[in-house]
């Protein structure tokens, strides 16, 4: 008989290891916090806010520090009767243009039932509606746009908003934009005029080093994990792995949570190093699968071409032979093949993502060339492509070929 039973020998508060958990204390970011506070100071003094640009890789505390400081700021400002501060936070991850961000902002500010639709208005109309809503609130308004890099080069709003007051679009309201980006290149892509205004103040969040990650893990483990349920050296190991790879606190916390789940499933009383090792390879696998799902259509076809070669036991295989296979798949899927050179670039990308591996061959006078093979299990590559490509009969053939050759 199946039965649910409570298991709590490892976790005391597992939610504290989740992405959405807001820590009470921020570790190891004193310098960045100081710089950030200085950039926000005009708000407290009653002046026009600075526009602030925060950047750094994922998992380095940009969102956590921003949430923490903006909350603090609202609390502290509330003791001044002559200040009226509103904070609007928006994660732009799923929005890929200024237009969509502006629509979201309008809708966030409007009461339910008065939302506008996300298509159909000219961009300037949406901006105008946004200004109307901002004017209606008045005072000082900080607009925090997280993961702003996802709007790409459709960045007009970032030109408009920070200058709205100077351009007479807003009369009584003081608006400041806090833009947060996981991608520093985003800043360089921006129109120089946008750079000047949006990036009045820039704060970089560098990757964490191992000892910093260990402190972050320790303070979180105190809340999340039962006393004594972590073996000596485990936090240090998680911190070292994450520091070596990305310097991301998110990665370190993910490792710890998954290691804890593995310990729990194995009915262990402690999280051990071996659990962390298993967790690491599972996360690695997930990351690669994620990478496969996010490929562009031609990246997928290039990958499927390698899988097809692999099913015939013909890998490692050089670029031009993969190209032949790729062209055949393009014809079956009714898409125009890219040039051999572009496909070559796709193969390099797949290698960077850890989906393919390459070995260099020497061919005498004609220079060196690479041979590629799958660096992920054949079946996971094919499953992932079967989900996203409409090539059912080709994929069936590849699977059948693999079965004949015992490729798994
Ligand atoms: N300095 C820190 N102190 C405590 N927790 C942190 C710190 N930096 C990051 N974290 C935690 O790590 C995770 C990732 O941080 P986050 O702020 O979301 O990164 P980013 O926004 O830079 O991608 C979150 O769970 C966050 O609470
Ligand atoms: Mg973030």
TrEMBL record:
> Can the keyword ATP-binding be found in this entry's annotation?
yes
Q: Name the source's superkingdom.
A: Archaea
A Pfam family in this protein?
A: Cdc6_lid
Question: Domain AAA+ ATPase, which positions?
Answer: 48-209
Q: List each copy of the Cdc6 C-terminal domain by range.
A: 303-385
The alphabetized list of GO BP terms reads: DNA replication
- Sorted UniProt keywords: ATP-binding, DNA replication, Nucleotide-binding
- Family annotation (SUPFAM superfamilies): P-loop containing nucleoside triphosphate hydrolases, Winged helix' DNA-binding domain
| CDD domains attached to this UniProt entry | AAA (cd00009), Cdc6_C (cd08768)
Q: What does this protein do?
A: Involved in regulation of DNA replication.
For this entry, the protein name equals ORC1-type DNA replication protein
């Amino acid at each position: 008989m199946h039965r649910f039973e409570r298991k709590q020998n490892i976790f005391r508060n597992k939610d504290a290891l989740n992405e959405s958990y807001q820590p009470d204390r921020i570790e190891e970011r004193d310098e960045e916090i100081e710089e950030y506070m200085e950039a926000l100071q005009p708000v407290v003094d009653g002046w026009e806010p600075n526009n602030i640009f925060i950047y750094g890789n994922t998992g380095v505390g940009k969102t956590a520090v921003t949430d923490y400081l903006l909350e603090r700021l609202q609390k502290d400002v509330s003791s001044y009767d002559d200040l009226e501060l509103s904070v609007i936070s928006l994660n732009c991850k799923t929005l890929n243009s200024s237009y969509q961000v502006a629509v979201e902002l309008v809708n966030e500010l409007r009461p339910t039932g008065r939302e506008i639709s996300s298509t159909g208005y000219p961009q300037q109309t949406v901006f105008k509606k946004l200004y109307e809503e901002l004017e209606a609130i008045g005072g000082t308004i900080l607009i925090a746009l997280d993961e702003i890099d996802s709007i790409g080069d459709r960045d007009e709003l970032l030109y408009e908003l920070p200058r709205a007051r100077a351009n007479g679009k807003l009369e009584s309201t003081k608006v400041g934009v806090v833009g947060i980006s996981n991608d520093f290149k985003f800043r360089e892509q921006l129109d120089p005029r946008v750079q000047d205004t949006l990036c009045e103040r820039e704060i970089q969040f560098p990757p964490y080093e191992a000892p910093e990650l260990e402190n972050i893990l320790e303070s979180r483990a105190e809340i999340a994990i039962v006393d004594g349920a972590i073996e000596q050296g485990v936090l240090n190991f998680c911190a070292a792995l994450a520091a070596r790879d990305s310097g991301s606190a998110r990665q370190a916390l993910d490792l710890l949570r998954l290691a804890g789940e593995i310990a729990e499933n194995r009915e262990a009383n402690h999280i051990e190093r071996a659990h962390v090792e298993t967790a690491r390879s599972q996360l690695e696998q997930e990351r690669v699968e994620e990478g496969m799902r996010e490929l562009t259509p031609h990246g997928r076809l290039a990958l499927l071409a390698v899988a097809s070669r692999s099913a015939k036991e013909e890998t490692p295989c050089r670029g031009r032979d993969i190209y032949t296979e790729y062209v055949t798949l393009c014809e079956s899927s009714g898409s125009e093949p890219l040039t051999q050179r572009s496909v070559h670039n796709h193969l390099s990308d797949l290698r960077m993502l850890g989906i393919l591996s390459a070995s260099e061959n020497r061919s005498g006078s004609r220079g060196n060339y690479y041979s590629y093979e799958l660096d992920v299990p054949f079946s996971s590559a094919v499953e992932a492509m079967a989900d996203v490509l409409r090539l059912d009969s080709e994929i069936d053939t590849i699977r059948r070929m693999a079965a004949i050759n015992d490729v798994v």
